[in-house]
Predict the 3D structure of the following.
Amino acid sequence: MAKILYVNASLGGNDSHSQRLAHEFLAAWQHDFPQDQVITRDLAADSPPLINRAFTSALYKQASDYSREEAEIMNVSDTYVDELLQADYLILAAPVYNYTLPTLLKAYFDLILRIGRTFVSTPEGSQGLLGGRKVLVLSARLGDYSPGTGREHFDYHEPYLRFVFERMGINDVQYIAVSQNPMLHDESTRMAQMNTYRGHMEQVLKGWREARMLSLV
Ligand SMILES: Cc1cc2nc3c(=O)[nH]c(=O)nc-3n(C[C@H](O)[C@H](O)[C@H](O)COP(=O)(O)O)c2cc1C
């Protein structure tokens, strides 16, 4: 049995494109591998705390010395890290807000980028501890910041995500930027665009499915 961690950072509810695609991906995966377990971490439904002084002071203490406030925030951090460590796959519904990550997702990364847990510091530099995992990011936005648009420099989302995953040892990151703009395109054009994104997602699904099948033989 493999484990999939699904992290939602969209505030869009039922209207969210990122979530809709993530749900479609998970449904297809569960159809093929019903024995696999999906763990959902919905940051919109249950917001992560912002890191604070209790968190930064706890980083330098033994758990047995934590104050109540330190224990509370470290408990959340440990829960998130444990979920990641148990997961083989990570699906992220992560829209662009203000050119970068939703605050909820930044708060989540602040809690999972933990020395000794998701990376270690060595004389040769830091090393990630989450190697071997696969990540799919589904990221809706209004704008198109893809190469050739002249707006690549607006994007503080994909480079940040790729970098922090790499710091944790994860290099297999598939990133699908879902540009949907009702002010620029009519509904039929947007539906056609969504089908193109679904095609990209199907390619990722195909690759993961093949790797998963090989792991079963
Ligand atoms: C607070 C806020 C900030 C946003 N900032 C941007 C932005 O910087 N660039 C962009 O292209 N779209 C931006 N958007 C539009 C969203 O990315 C877009 O509505 C997207 O579909 C949201 O993802 P979702 O459909 O998965 O919820 C913003 C939306 C909100 C609510």
Remarks:
- The chain has a mean pLDDT of 96.
- Residues 75 and 81 are 10 Å apart (CA to CA).
